[in-house]
Amino acid sequence: MKALVYDGPGRRSWTDHAEPGIAAPTDAIVRVDAVTICGTDLHILKGDVPEVERGRILGHEAVGTIVETGSAVTAVKSGDKVLVSCISACGRCEYCRKAAYGQCLGGGGWILGHTTDGVQAEYARVPFADTSTYVLPSGVSDESALMLADIVPTSYEVGVRNGSVKPGDTVVIVGAGPIGLAAITNAQLFAPSTIIVVDREPARLDAAKSFGADLMVRPDDAVAAVAQASGGLGADVAIEAVGVPETFELCAKLVRPGGHVANVGVHGAPATLHLEELWIKNLTITTGLVDTSSTPMLLRMLAAGRLDTSRFVTHRFGLDEMDEAYDVFAHPQDSDALKVALFRS
Asked: At the topology level of CATH, where does 2-150+291-343 sit?
């Protein structure tokens, strides 16, 4: 088969690779029908995630068709169309029993495209298939469901839910990439009074407006804009959706006393925490890896027409155009790309 293989920082190739096989009774083999690229994949290619070894197939977001299952798999069967979650869950360990699947101690967590081969390939082995795949409801398209593999549950759980967004809140989202735009979508479920989005790129600010943001500003103008919009108090919730030191530190400046900074971005370098300024402000700062415990609920909302994921994908490719898709996704300033989707021909 063909697969997107990581060969060290800055090096990738769409190349021949052995097809996967069942390695454990809880595995399933999935024919990949639709797949996307994540900002985390770009962090890996920059060398920000040193746990990823050379030769690893990247990717952790896919929709596909089950073609084979291990002897212990009972929840899905050959022929089922499934969403492959970015998080794998053994279902038995202490954390999985608390629905904290991202911290799985039984061999799960974020493993696809990280510590085991991922889904940017024609076929993929999915460990713990019973608890790590979700059968698509009738009428839900591959492309719509694909957004629920990672960015929608991540922005919901790690950003909006961990940030405790409430009706009437002033919410500022720093970063208008796919995660930031998904945070707009999810924040709207809780009826905040104002959603402010901060980004450098005009095209992404335009996208934030189309997703429903009330105010779009550049970083240099963010402090003044948030102060004006909040009566001088600052944001109730600041969601960091980039993953660089400057954006985390900006969130800490934008939030009011008693407010909440919810970090979603994947960081590859240290950020300064100015406790000399923050200790007195009663702030809550949360970090997190998505657990995907919200995925069944989000799928129900998608099937019911209560959640719209149709605006995320701006560029579509065939699987064999993986290199071009990476180039487009990695240079949004040139392509205006949000999410890219690749489909089996």
From this structure: Quinone Oxidoreductase; Chain A, domain 1 (3.90.180)
Q: How far apart are CA 302 and CA 86, in angstroms?
A: 18
Cα separation, 166 vs 151, whole angstroms: 21
**Which residues lie closer than 8 Å to 123 by C-beta, 6 or more apart?**
1, 19, 20, 29, 30, 31, 32, 67
pLDDT, tens only, 101-116: 999 999 999 999 999 9
CA distances from 166 to 98, 160, 189, 237 (A): 24, 9, 9, 9
How does pLDDT run across 150-204, given as a tens digit for each residue? 999 999 999 999 999 999 999 999 999 999 999 999 999 999 999 999 999 999 9
Mean residue pLDDT of the chain comes to 97
pLDDT tens-digit profile of 292-321? 999 999 999 999 999 999 999 999 999 999
Parallel/antiparallel/unpaired status of strands 235-240 and 194-198: unpaired
Domain boundaries along the sequence of the chain = 2-150+291-343, 153-287
- The number of residues making up the chain comes to 345
The topology under which CATH files domain 153-287 is Rossmann fold (3.40.50)
CB 196 within 8 A of CB 217: yes
- pTM of the full structure: 0.94
